[in-house]
Task: inverse folding
């Protein structure tokens, strides 16, 4: 099989990070996730303490979850230096000889000119995402709604800032999956099947 790159972007709350882990494991390829944030922050001179806007949390009971999922969403990343550092890191990782999966960080846009690329967008109805977050992170549905609204807004605004586009647009996406219909394992199988069809 030829070298390939997968990028996965998502709506918040549809278990996309776990699907990315499962996909990378099943394909036996490297997963780039928070390591991209760490390396870009280091190159741009952004402190680890600035990775989240932790003082402006949704609720005291969801602070830990918010900080986990807003990693790298600080306003410090809204600068030309930070965006350029992130793009450089992602391209350097993509230029390695091995296939890899890139999770988030506008990687679909940054790697848009690369050959052998599969851009995936994972989404689900809001009701599904609320239920998943409430059950997975032991929060109320009200807390889950607030968290979903805030994280989705942050990610949409950041993607728009970097790319000038909406992250859920069909443009540049080869595969869009409703996780509520197929589940995490089904979504993983669909991505792996698409890789086989495109790159074998």
Result:
């Amino acid at each position: 099989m030829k070298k390939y790159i997968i990028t996965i972007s998502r709506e918040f709350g549809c278990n996309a990070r776990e699907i990315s882990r499962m996909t990378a494991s099943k394909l036996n390829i490297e997963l780039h996730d928070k390591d991209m944030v760490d390396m870009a922050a280091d190159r741009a001179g952004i402190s680890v303490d600035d990775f989240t806007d932790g003082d402006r949390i949704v609720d005291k009971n969801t602070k830990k979850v918010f900080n986990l999922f807003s990693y790298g969403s600080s306003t410090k990343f809204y600068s030309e230096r930070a965006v350029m550092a992130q793009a450089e890191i992602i391209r350097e990782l993509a230029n390695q000889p091995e296939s890899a999966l890139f999770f988030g960080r506008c990687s679909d846009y940054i790697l848009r000119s690369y050959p052998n690329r599969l851009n995936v967008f994972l989404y689900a109805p809001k009701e599904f995402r609320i239920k998943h977050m409430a059950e997975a992170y032991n929060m109320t549905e009200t807390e889950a709604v607030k968290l979903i609204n805030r994280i989705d807004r942050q990610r949409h605004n950041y993607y728009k800032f970097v790319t000038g586009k909406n992250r859920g647009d069909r443009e540049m996406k080869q595969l869009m999956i409703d996780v509520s219909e197929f589940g995490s394992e089904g979504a993983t199988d669909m991505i792996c099947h698409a890789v086989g069809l495109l790159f074998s």
